[in-house]
Every structure is written in C-alpha cells, then in structure tokens.
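Budget justification aside, the reviewers requested a transparent look at the raw inputs and outputs of the sequence design task funded under Objective 1. We therefore reproduce one unedited record. The lines immediately below are the structure tokens for a 119-residue chain.
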C-alpha cells in the first residue's frame, strides 16, 4: 500500500494546529480547578475538603493528579506531530497498512474541524 508524504504531513499539521488550543483549554481548566479549591475557605470544612480527612485524598491531591495528566496529554499531543514528521523522512520499511488505519481516523489539517473537543 502506498501512502504519500502529504497525507502524513497533513496529519502532523492537524496536531500542530490543535496543540495551542489544547494547551489554552487546559490552562483555563486549571484556573477553574484552583478557584473551586479556594472557594471552600480556611475553616474546618474548607480544610477538610481541600486536604482530605482520615487519610483520604482531598481536593488538592486529586486536582494535582489531574493536572499532571493534563501536562502529559499536552506533551503527547505535540510529540505525535513531531514523530509523524520524523517518520515521514526516515521510513524505509514499515507496516503501511497499520499506518493507513491510524491516519484514516484523523481529519485533515482544517481549522474548522478540530481533532479534540467541540467545534
């Protein structure tokens, strides 16, 4: 099966296009998570909510885990475009059928058609 480099390039461009929007979206979500944590205040109820009680994870620990996962997502998103371009220039032998299956699931680089989230 033959796959042209412009198909791979288009997929990489689509990931690049969405990368900035994804980082902005996650940054805004992080601000919202922080605001929710601060909402409960410093009294006993607020501290219990934020820090946890009886050895359980509180809001602080859970949102920290969420944000670490979001950072990994943003990094992975950028890495996909980088690796597609690397693959485009260096592949001599590969399972083109598998590459075709993967790329067939991705939309072309089109700003009106995002890869993730709502349009």
């Amino acid at each position: 099966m033959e796959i042209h480099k412009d198909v791979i390039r288009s997929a990489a461009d689509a990931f690049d296009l969405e990368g900035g929007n994804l980082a902005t979206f996650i940054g805004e979500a992080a601000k919202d998570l922080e605001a929710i944590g601060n909402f409960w205040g410093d009294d006993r109820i607020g501290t219990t909510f934020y820090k946890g009680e009886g050895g359980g994870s509180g809001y602080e620990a859970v949102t920290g885990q969420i944000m670490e996962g979001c950072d990994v997502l943003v990094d992975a998103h950028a890495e996909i475009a980088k690796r597609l371009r690397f693959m485009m220039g260096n592949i001599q032998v590969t399972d083109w059928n598998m590459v075709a299956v993967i790329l067939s699931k991705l939309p072309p680089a089109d700003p009106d058609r995002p890869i993730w989230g709502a349009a």
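The longest helix spans residues 5-39. The chain has a mean pLDDT of 76. Computational costs for records of this kind are itemized in the attached budget.
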